[in-house]
Amino acid sequence: MSARTVTIVTVDQGEITIPEPAWCVGHHWQPRPYLADITHNSVRVKAGAMTAEHGWVSILVARISHAPYAMVLPQPYPVVSVEVDMVAELAAEDVPKVSQGLRVAAMRLEKVAAEALRLRGGLA
Prior knowledge:
about 120 residues, alpha+beta, 6 strands
């Protein structure tokens, strides 16, 4: 399998061509970054719960991330980027739904972590 590459125009290095992992969703969200800010991200994995009072509440957003050129916290291999957040006053009837959402969040987070571990053998 041949390696994918992407050409990005950076603020500090001009136009550069770098390897891009197959799992990366692209860099359209990073217009003219500094080289150190270039980050490869996978699709987002989400989990939450549908509540009667608040509708959909997000519990988890996670993705595989890799910032190989970072200066402050260099990442020699893909990591798991995790956002866990929910603040709500819940009706007692909604608590089982949120509990189930937490279980789903845990399973999805474990799957993302397993994939990140698999990718450590190669960044493809």
